[in-house]
Structures are given as structure tokens and as C-alpha cells.
Here is the input.
Amino acid sequence: MINLTSVSGFILMGFSDERKFQILHVLLFLVTYLLALTGNLLIITIITLDRHLQSPMYYFLKHLSLLDLCFISVTVPQSIANSLMNNGYISLGQCILQVFFFIALASSEVAILTVMSYDRYIAICQPLQYEAIMDSSTCRSAVIAVWIAGGLSGLMHTAINFSLPLCGERVIHQFFCDVPQMLKLACSSEFINEISVAAFTTSIALICLISIVLSYIHIFSTVLKIPSAEGRTKVFSTCLPHLFVVTFFLSAAGFEFLRPPSDSPSAMDFMFSIFYTVVPPTLNPVIYSLRNKALKAGLSKVLCPKKNLLRERYA
Here is the structure.
């Protein structure tokens, strides 16, 4: 038995103390993780190899998949390992790294989704200026800004969160080092600093959300003016997946971070954390590929290269 008051790390409570539920959790998380790993790696590979998918939209999608791949890898493997070993212990160093990368990648994902909505806005509402505005230099600068912004956000939260003195048992009622749950362990009024940082990042996220909403208001007003049904279908096939991803990710994240942490988390609390941390990186590749003919064609080329080579040769 671990002495909770003397350890330098933390105890993650996880989903259950019963062994059969821990094994079930391992199986479900392992399958989900492998699906996310496969789906996102496929999208990254397809976009990298297919010369027809070198537009800004797919360039940003590739980085979204890379973010999703890293995002789910921050929490799920550690949770699987803890359940397999029937031990929820996580060292202080591991927890610091987990908080940093979790916040950094989540912030970067919000930023890249905002950039993607702006890209669709320019492509649909200002098509004649698209190539001039979204040139390769602009796209690279936007992606660099996304990663830097995420890194700074993660650094601020980590520095403030782990500078607070902790009281009592170091038990985190989550399957990962969740910042709201960790704030409950602080025994100092200095946690107002973390709240200030959280308020700042929440304000930035709100600005991103407003930008996305305004972009799609302009996009849909433009799409409705397109006379041909085929043209509207083509536009919706690229915009609707992005809109669904934005809505799902931001609503789940907003619910998780804006609600007050419970003193005795229920199964529903764990479920909402899964909706935020595990489900989006797993579903995003499916959502983007289902309605996108170019990605389907690219997937076919990757899976059946000889068949597609013969088709192109005799076309």
C-alpha cells in the first residue's frame, strides 16, 4: 500500500478498483488508441504522398491529424499501463509532462481548427484571392504560430499549477493529471494565479470560437447563393466535417473545463472526460474521410498502389 501523504507523485483513481473492469478499460482504450493511431497516420501518409492533396486545406488537416495523434498519446497509454499494473501511481515528472503536453496540444487544436475555418472562408467567399492570401509562406507561418501558441499555453498552466503547495492526499479523481482536479489539492490562496491563466486561455478560446462562427456564417450565406446543387454539395463535403469536429471538440472541452469539479466524481464525469480526450482524435479521421472524395481516392492509392497505377496508365 502506498503512503499517499509521503509520495512525491500522485495517485490516479481511474475508472474502477475491480479487476474485471480494469481489464475491460484496457481493452476498450487499447482498441480506441489503435484506431486513432491508424486513422491519423493514414491521413498524414495520404496527404504527404498524394500530389493531388497539396492544397492549404489538406496541409492544415495533416497537422490536425498530427495534433490528434500526439493528443491521445499523452493520456491513453499511461492509463492503459496503470490499469494493467493495477497501480494508479504517476510520478511528479510524468504528471508535469502530461499536463504540459495535454494543455499545449489542446490549445494548438483549437488554434488549428480556427485556421482551418479561415482557410475555408477565404476559399469559398474570396476564391479569386485565395492563392494570393493562402500561399505556402502564410500556411507555414500559421502552423508555426499554432504550435508556438499551444506551447506557451501549456508552459503557463504547468508553471502556475505546479508552483502551488499541495495539502493532504495526492489523489486525482481522473485517469490522467487533470488540471481542474489538481487545483482541488492546492492548499494556498495562490491558486487564483492558475484561475487567472485559465480565464485568459478561455478568453482566447472564446475568440477562436467567435471567429469560427463568423467564418461559417459567411460561408453558408455564400453557399446558399450557389445555383447548382452539385456546387453546394461539393462545398458542404469539405465544410460540414470541419464544422462537426469544431462543435464536438469545443463543446466537450468547454463542458469539462467550465463546470466546477466534483468532490466525488461519478461515471458521467469520467465519460465526459473521454468525450474530450479520447473520442475526437479517434473520430476525426473517419469524419474527414467519409465525405471527402479526394481523401478516399488517396486512401485507395495507398492501400492498392498497383491497381491504381494500372488505372492511371490506361486512363
Summary: The radius of gyration is 22 Å. The chain has one domain: 10-313.
